[in-house]
Amino acid sequence: MLEALVCPLTQGPLRYDPERQELISDRARLAFPIRGGIPIMIEDEARPLE
Question: What is the torsion angle, in degrees rounded to the nearest 10, for the CA atoms of residue 31, residue 34, residue 40 and residue 45?
Fold first, then answer.
């Protein structure tokens, strides 16, 4: 399923971080949370990467 998802800001690929339950957009420097098995692909909900 991950292959079908892209970053909502850059339309670039995402990678999965199983430890933090997040989808990472390296281009946007954001981590989108996964809650209850559902990716939350909203910029305001994303965590900035350091």
Answer: -50
Write out the DSSP string of 10-45. Answer: T----EEETTTTEEEETTTTEEEEEETTEE---GGG
Give Cβ neighbours of residue 28 (< 8 Å, ≥ 6 apart). 7, 9, 10, 12, 46
pTM (whole model) above 0.85: yes
pLDDT tens digits for range 2-41: 778 999 999 999 999 999 999 999 999 999 999 999 999 9
End-to-end CA, the chain? 27
